Write a sequence for this structure.
């Protein structure tokens, strides 16, 4: 179907391809049209810069640095995909214990986020953080370590079972892959292929035989139909709505992957052009991950991260359940509804209050609520419903439920003793009530959905 390009659809695209759109961004998107908006989102971004030495001094400082980059970033799709690949190729500080390597790992994911999947897998296989995380740096001909070989197939490429429920590999395949990756190790802080530690014996893997190297295995796995199917299923579920591995939508994206020579960008573009992406099924169908919630909130509020408060910010993200650079296991985070289990939702409400209440240099962010209300000379024209509508639009929630509207409008007009008073939008009202309304909106059930 032809895409009806309007504010609601532009907002939907920006929620999924990034962290939401401000009213100014929506106006620009509507003016330039769908094609130019999509092309700008898909255009590869320049490489991510290196953080300063201080940001590499502890985990929460590095987390705050990345969050700040996302809030200020001009290429939200690369940042959104970096988070996707961070969960797909999960690698954690809990074992790596080297923040410089972890930054390089995530930088690799972001720099290749929309590129060729073969290049991405090859880069990850040589990445120091991954070599430590899954022990391949100690995978030698006379002492084979199977960890990376197993996860390369189970989690990074084919998956355990194909769409028909049949195994994608055997234990013999795991051994063959582990032998092929022997000698892929480290020399100091860099990848090094140690020929002396490589098993040069003949190996058999999915129709290939001979002195197979890790590159041969990567070529085979990247081209495997099961990999195409699994990537299609995972990308669709991340950007649109959850589907099973055998869903025809995964078949469609797998075909795009094969036809493009294993490129990622054409698959993502196909999602954003698909009729089902614009269907009611896809609207507000995904629970925002904690990082997505935090970055999106600051972006929409036009707030800023204060990097001199890394423990407040990193601690808040960790409390909400997503400690970036430090996923809980090789399986990454358990996404979706677990994000808003009781404790997670309470932590979001606490963080929402902290962000909305940010008034001075001791706060973890900077936030000026008056920026959401337009020109100060126009404030007196706002009554309660108009004020609430303006804030909901600013926070990408113009479709809030009737019950949420009633609650917000009631709060906007309530005096300290609970009596209903006329809404007079002045500096005092903005500093108290608008901050309170922002906290309520960020904590509302609808706002947790993308």
């Amino acid at each position: 179907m032809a895409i009806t390009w309007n504010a609601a659809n532009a907002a939907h695209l920006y929620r999924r391809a990034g962290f939401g759109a401000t009213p100014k961004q929506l106006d620009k998107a509507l003016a330039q049209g769908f094609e130019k908006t999509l092309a700008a989102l898909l255009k590869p971004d320049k490489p991510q810069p290196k953080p300063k030495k201080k940001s590499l001094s502890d985990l929460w400082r590095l987390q705050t640095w990345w969050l700040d980059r996302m809030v200020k970033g001009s290429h939200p799709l690369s940042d959104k995909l970096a988070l996707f690949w961070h969960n797909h190729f999960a690698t954690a500080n809990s074992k790596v214990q080297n923040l410089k390597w972890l930054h390089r790992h995530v930088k690799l994911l972001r720099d290749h986020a929309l590129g060729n999947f073969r290049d991405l897998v090859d880069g990850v296989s040589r990445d120091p953080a991954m070599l430590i995380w899954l022990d391949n740096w100690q995978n030698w001909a006379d002492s084979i370590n199977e960890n990376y070989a197993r996860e390369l197939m189970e989690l990074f490429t084919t998956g355990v079972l194909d769409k028909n429920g049949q195994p994608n590999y055997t234990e013999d395949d795991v051994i063959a892959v582990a032998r092929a990756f022997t000698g892929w190790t480290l020399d100091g802080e860099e990848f090094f292929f140690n020929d002396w530690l490589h098993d040069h014996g003949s190996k058999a893997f999915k129709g290939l035989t001979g002195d197979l190297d890790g590159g041969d295995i990567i070529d085979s796995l990247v081209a495997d139909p099961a990999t195409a199917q699994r990537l299609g299923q995972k990308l669709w579920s991340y950007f649109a709505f959850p589907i099973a591995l055998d869903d025809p939508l995964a078949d469609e994206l797998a075909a795009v992957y094969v036809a493009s020579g294993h490129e990622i960008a054409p698959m993502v573009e196909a999602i954003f052009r698909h009729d089902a992406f614009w269907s009611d099924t896809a609207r507000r169908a995904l629970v925002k991950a904690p990082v997505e919630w935090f970055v999106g909130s600051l972006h929409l509020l036009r707030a800023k991260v204060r990097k001199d408060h890394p423990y407040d910010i990193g601690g808040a993200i960790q409390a909400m359940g997503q400690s970036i650079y430090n996923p809980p296991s090789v399986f990454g985070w358990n996404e979706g509804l677990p994000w808003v289990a009781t404790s997670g939702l309470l932590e979001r409400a606490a963080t929402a209050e902290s962000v909305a209440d940010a008034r001075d240099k001791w706060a973890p962010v900077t936030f000026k609520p008056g920026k959401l209300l337009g020109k100060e000379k126009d404030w007196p024209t706002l009554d309660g419903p108009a004020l609430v509508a303006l804030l909901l639009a600013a926070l990408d929630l113009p479709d809030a439920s009737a019950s949420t509207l009633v609650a917000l409008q009631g709060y906007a007009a309530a005096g300290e003793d609970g009596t209903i008073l006329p809404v007079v939008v002045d500096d005092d009202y903005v500093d108290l009530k608008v901050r309170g309304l922002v906290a309520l909106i960020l904590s509302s059930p609808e706002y947790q959905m993308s």
Summary: The mean pLDDT is 95. Residues 290-366 form one domain. The radius of gyration is 24 Å.
